[in-house]
Specification:
Pfam families: LPG_synthase_C
Protein name: DUF2156 domain-containing protein
Domain Phosphatidylglycerol lysyltransferase C-terminal: 24-303
InterPro entries: Acyl_CoA_acyltransferase, LPG_synthase_C, UCP018688
Strand content: 25-35%
Helix content: 25-40%
Distance between the termini: 23 Å
CATH class of the largest domain: Alpha Beta
CATH topology of the largest domain: Aminopeptidase
Number of helices: 11
Order of helices and strands: EHHEEEHEHEEHHEHHHEEEHEHEE
C-alpha cells in the first residue's frame, strides 16, 4: 500500500525508530524486515512523523491479505498525531477496498492505540506470532533437569562427531545455501509450501549475502570440512539477540543442540536474552521452542476496526 521499497540504505532511518522505543518484537527489527521484504511485499512511508510499514500476506495462494504494522515512533508517542496517521492508513485500506488490518502489535502498544482512537479497535491475540525469549545463560549452560535431554544430545554430538565451530563469514555463504538446498530436497511439499520455500530461500540468501551490512553475527558447524549447520542472528537491543536463521542436518544427532549452544556461547555471552522468534502455529516448531523453556513470551495482537 505504501510507496517506498525497503533497502539497505534505510537501515539507519528504521533503527532511529526501532531503537528509541522498547518494541521487543523480532518482526519489527530491520534485519527481519529486510530479509523478508520480498515475501511480504514490505513498503513504507513516513506519515505524521511515524514510520508506517505495509505488507501483503502470501500464506494463502487464493487471496492476498493486506496489512500494516503499528506506526513506529521516535521516543514518546504523540496520540494526537497517531490518530491522524491512523486516519491516513485507514484511507489507504479504503482505496484498496479491503478491511483495516494491523499486525504484530505488542501488548504495551495497545493502550496507546486505545488513547489515539477510543472505542475504535478490536484487539485479538495472535498466539502463532508470539516471540519466544530465553535467558542466554540457560541456552549456554543447559543446566538442570529441564535441559537434561538436550544436554545428553549435545554431549553425544561432542563425544562422537569430529566437528569444528566457526564464525560465519562470506566464504561460508555458498556452502550454507547448498546445505539449505539439500535440507529442502529431503521432504515433499504442497504447492503452497513449495511457493513459500522458494521465497524463504531468497530471504536466507538476502540475509547471508548482506550479513555484514545488516550487522549480523553467525556461526557454522563443519563436519569433514562441510557445513552441516549454520545460524544467523542480530541484536534487537542492548540485551537481546534475535536468532533469524537456524539450519541443521537433522540426521546428525545433537547437531541442532550444538549449533544453538555454540552460537550463544560465542555471541551471546554478554547478553541477557535470546529471542528465537515465533512458531507460526506449526505444532513441531512450537514443541521445540517450548522445550527450551522460555522465560517470557512477547505477545502480539491483530487489530481490526469495530463495526
Amino acid at each position: 500500500m505504501f510507496k517506498n521499497e525497503i533497502t539497505l540504505e534505510d537501515k539507519a532511518l528504521f533503527e532511529k525508530y526501532t531503537g528509541s522505543y522498547p518494541y521487543e518484537t523480532s518482526g519489527l527489527s530491520f534485519t527481519s524486515l529486510f530479509m523478508w521484504r520480498h515475501l511480504n511485499s514490505f513498503k513504507y512511508e513516513i506519515i505524521h512523523d511515524f514510520l508506517c510499514i505495509s505488507g501483503i500476506n502470501h500464506l494463502n495462494l487464493d487471496y492476498k491479505e493486506f496489512f500494516v504494522f503499528p506506526p513506529l515512533a521516535i521516543g514518546k508517542y504523540d496520540v494526537h498525531k497517531l490518530s491522524l496517521a491512523i486516519d491516513v492508513i485507514k484511507n489507504k485500506f479504503d482505496e484498496k477496498g479491503v478491511p483495516f488490518n494491523m499486525k504484530l502489535v505488542p501488548l504495551h502498544i495497545i493502550e496507546i492505540l486505545k488513547a489515539a482512537k477510543p472505542k475504535k479497535f478490536i484487539f485479538t491475540p495472535d498466539r502463532d506470532n508470539y516471540d519466544y525469549v530465553y535467558l542466554a545463560k540457560d541456552l549456554i549452560e543447559l543446566r538442570g533437569r529441564k535441559y537434561h535431554a538436550k544436554k545428553n544430545h549435545l554431549n553425544y554430538f561432542i563425544k562422537n562427531v569430529t566437528h569444528q565451530y566457526v564464525p560465519l563469514t562470506n566464504e561460508h555463504i555458498k556452502d550454507c545455501l547448498a546445505l539449505n538446498e539439500r535440507l529442502i530436497k529431503t521432504k515433499t511439499y504442497s504447492p503452497l509450501e513449495s511457493h513459500l520455500i522458494d521465497l524463504e530461500q531468497n530471504a536466507v540468501y538476502e540475509a547471508l549475502k548482506n550479513m555484514n551490512a545488516l550487522g549480523c553475527k553467525g556461526g557454522a558447524i563443519l563436519i569433514d570440512n562441510e557445513v552441516q549447520a549454520f545460524t544467523l542472528g542480530a541484536k534487537l537491543n542492548e540485551d537481546t539477540m534475535v536468532i533469524h536463521i537456524e539450519k541443521a542436518n537433522a540426521r546428525i544427532r545433537g547437531l541442532y543442540q550444538a549449533i544453538n549452544q555454540q552460537f550463544c556461547s560465542h555471541e551471546c555471552i554478554d547478553l541477557k536474552y535470546v529471542n528465537r522468534e515465533e512458531d507460526m502455529g506449526l505444532e513441531n516448531l512450537r514443541k521445540a521452542k517450548l522445550s527450551y523453556r522460555p522465560v517470557k513470551m512477547i505477545e502480539k495482537y491483530n487489530v481490526t476496526l469495530m463495526k
